[in-house]
From TrEMBL, chains A, B, C, D, E, F:
<protein>
    <recommendedName>
        <fullName>DJ-1/PfpI domain-containing protein</fullName>
    </recommendedName>
</protein>
<dbReference type="InterPro" id="IPR029062">
    <property type="entry name" value="Class_I_gatase-like"/>
</dbReference>
<dbReference type="InterPro" id="IPR006286">
    <property type="entry name" value="C56_PfpI-like"/>
</dbReference>
<keyword id="KW-0645">Protease</keyword>
<feature type="domain" description="DJ-1/PfpI">
    <location>
        <begin position="1"/>
        <end position="162"/>
    </location>
</feature>
<keyword id="KW-0378">Hydrolase</keyword>
<dbReference type="GO" id="GO:0008233">
    <property type="term" value="F:peptidase activity"/>
</dbReference>
<dbReference type="GO" id="GO:0006508">
    <property type="term" value="P:proteolysis"/>
</dbReference>
<dbReference type="InterPro" id="IPR002818">
    <property type="entry name" value="DJ-1/PfpI"/>
</dbReference>
<dbReference type="Pfam" id="PF01965">
    <property type="entry name" value="DJ-1_PfpI"/>
</dbReference>
<comment type="similarity">
    <text>Belongs to the peptidase C56 family.</text>
</comment>
């Protein structure tokens, strides 16, 4: 099992660490990719090393895509390489887990039409215009797509994330 | 001539001060409204007193609505009163000037369909899904709707803002 | 299953959130206690509400004591009520999980003699003088006592924490 | 029409941006000069690129000198090149616009004797000892010398600044 | 022996603590006065309790006036009570010790004419216009007036401060 | 008379400057050593240049060792070279002055057995386990060992520090 995390400066720290550490606890191998392979700084100041530039990522090598929220997705959605990776995962029906503003990258990837989705409330209107069925819930599972609302929902988000691993095994 | 500025914490400071001071230079009377009438703090630390809570604003008393960007619009678009004011201005064809993320409030107000619009690049996909005709330009004027891209475009944004005043006189 | 977390200002944020959210994922009921029942602010700025002042805690109602690190334990070890709670857990042989500087509270509680322990390297000499058998390892389990070294070891710390829950069930 | 802005770290951000953007709105060509041509950081964190080191500036190429306030003028008045430029403008009777602590540079240039001047209140005694006729007013125009008191007076300062452009044309 | 320290927000921390602690070492009794008797915060974040509002100070009860620098003197020189205290000390020929921007308060008090003085270089021109004989030296002693240049000169400033105590004994 | 100050990032600023400037006032020659000879930043932001890397220090060339507190000693006690220097001073009976958390380095050096010591209250239990006789006093002098409790005690700490110089002369 291999997971890919897309990251950039301004990520919401807990939304990286909670799923990252949870997946490591399950022995999932994880690659963190940032725009130029440089380290990324969270909105609360945690600094994380990257394993790879996004441009060098082959999405077919990964079973799971994780997109933390905060201000990082606003940076990532401006990059064709990051948007393309999210699109590939969505189109192939492979597992995607996005939380909070992480859903912004999925909007840009154009794959939310008719999908049930939750996200940070401040982007709920954007999600609706993108054709998604917005739910104000802690987490929403729609097939291979897992979305979460915010920090307070991380325990449920992680539980669903790990439950999904079992399904794939 | 009376103008209304909708503000909340996290506004991009220059996007408030440049049009605010520019309109004062033209002797436009300005009301700053915040969610509870409390002071608002910009992302660079400037603190601004409010004249009124948003809920007590009657949009019909104003000729012009100004919406600075930054993180304030993400807060404002969660409030029915703020969204309703923007919707009233758009539907009545009265003048609206939004810059950067200020356009997020217009998306939530649901009045961007077929309008020519610019905004911060990170929300261009949201603007497109909302039906708008996105342009990557410094400022875009579409009838009574003026939109601007970002800080660097404030001189042009202010010039268009003031030119519009003359049209209305 | 009920767990108690002792907290004060300056806690290392991830060392609170990772075990807290992990235990919530397992449906453990958790009480966060601070010196006066006030909210606590982590060294990275996260603010957490408390459920109770420490002085009103009855340690016999809890199965597990969790002590995050950072600068909070230096504050807690100055308080007789916090030290007394840790001592009660250690003397009764009930489960204790401390990480990083959290071990400082256990030193003050006087129950580390001949116990195998890991901790933040900067207090390893204090742990040795307190009679403990210091190990430079990610996590150390010595009977009902679980200790962890630092942030990077949180995945293993959480795995041991949850494994211990199963033992008690 | 060409304007020169003298800048250094610690400038009061709005006192740079309001006149700078206002002049750009009027299509004035502007050169920003800093001690070594390096970028300058305002007291609220805005970072501005410089067009030139101060030492390479020929004051005779400019019609207008603008001196924002904050802590930058305290740095500039220690440099002979910056003081010399201000002195040249004052002695030649060319236009000078200074606001807040920007007036400190004019004190050091030695050209305030018998001039009517306003400034930040905390340096009013220095202005008086320098021979100036201090006024506690929003803006003061004395021939080719325009001075302003502080941020709140920027709309009037900019109005006078632009009115002066017309006079010169 | 009694000393008075005039303080306000923005004081340069070391310029308070070095002479304050040094005088305490010599068993001098010290009163710290701030504008409203409130605590004051230094530019590096140290917070100091005040003993008295400035308005309630009777300068005749003190043998020595100490004025730290930083941004506090710019606030103090705007207050008649603070300026009046400095003037009383200077006119009575009682001991005054000012360092860095602390000399700004002496300018406003109008008693520097023909006095030998050092100060922060950025206000040297103000000191000259005030009639003083400026010296670019670590410390300058002119009768009962001791002035210092900056942080690096604090050891010499404190030595002169204490030597002055002996003279008065 | 030569003194050595051991420093690292996170030192409590006043605990460096008060004794450092006080010793300079007495014309003591001082060497500041940091882990790699790099500059060190205090917890309040003061930046200090180093004279030497710790590894190049020969402790026999110094009459006095000064160890400021804050978070620097937690870094220093992890380094064999720093611990070794402290051990040499203690074993040789040469003068050592430590304040606040500076005493942590002495614990690691293993020379506190049966010594009378004060320190920051949060490490008093560590001091006791190390065999020292802990006193909750401003300063404690035990032969050639001077210890201080915290910032508020710096005047007494410096008085004892200087008194000790006289003894050695």
């Amino acid at each position: 099992m291999k997971a890919l995390i897309l990251l950039a400066d301004g990520f919401e720290d807990l939304q990286l660490f909670a799923p990252w550490y949870r997946l490591r606890e399950e022995n999932v191998r994880i690659t963190i990719a940032t725009p130029w392979g440089q380290e990324a700084t969270g909105s609360h100041g945690y600094v994380v090393e990257a394993d790879s530039p996004i441009a060098e990522i082959n999405p077919n090598e990964y079973d799971l895509l994780v997109i933390p929220g905060g201000q990082a997705p606003a940076r990532l959605r401006l990059r064709e390489d990051a948007v393309g990776i999210a699109r590939t995962f969505l189109e192939d029906g492979r597992r995607v887990a996005a939380i909070d503003h992480g859903v912004q990258l999925l909007i840009s990837a154009g794959g939310l039409d008719s999908r049930k989705v939750t996200c940070h409330p401040s982007i709920r209107d954007d999600v609706r215009f993108a054709g998604a069925n917005y739910r104000d819930e802690a987490v929403v599972v729609d097939g291979s797509l897992l979305t979460g609302r915010g920090n307070e929902d991380l325990p449920q988000f992680c539980r669903s994330l790990v439950a999904g691993l079992a399904v794939r095994a």
